[in-house]
Amino acid sequence: MTFATPSTKKRSERGTEKRRYPEARVIVLDDNINTFNHVVKTLGSIIPGMTEERAWKLAHKINNEGSAEVWRGPLEQAELYHMQLSNEGLTMAPLERC
Questions:
Q1: Helical segments of 1-98, H only
Q2: How far is CA 8 from CA 16, 18, 21, 96, in A?
Q3: Of 9, 19, 49, 80, whose CB neighbour count within 10 A is largest?
Q4: How far apart are CA 72 and CA 62, in angstroms?
Q5: pLDDT tens, residue by residue, 1-51
Q6: Rounded to an integer, what distance in angstroms lies between the CA atom of residue 57 and that of residue 67?
Q7: Would you state the pLDDT for residue 7?
Q8: Which of 46, 35, 55, 56 lies closest to 77, judged by CA?
Q9: What predicted TM-score, i.e. pTM, was given to this entire model?
Q10: What is the pLDDT of residue 12?
Q11: Residue 67: burial class (beta carbons within 10 Å; 0-12, 13-18, 19+)
């Protein structure tokens, strides 16, 4: 007796379609520990392409709204940035898959 198992790939009329690589959101949470300067410096040193102006805007958003998405992209990179930001003392939300 044989059983059919669900395929992990989508099939089209012309063959197999590739699935999109999973993405995730990196979110920093507000806390009473980190200073604005530390948040700005840390974001600038870890997140590629982060400008000082953008880092300051994110730091204010984190303070005012309780959290801010600081990066979104491929899951593997998101895991790395999440770990690095956490290791620098920032308070992190769990990664959110998109």
A1: 36-46, 52-65, 75-87
A2: 10, 10, 13, 22
A3: 80
A4: 16
A5: 444 444 445 555 666 667 788 999 999 999 999 999 999 999 999 999 999
A6: 12
A7: 43
A8: 46
A9: 0.80
A10: 52
A11: middle
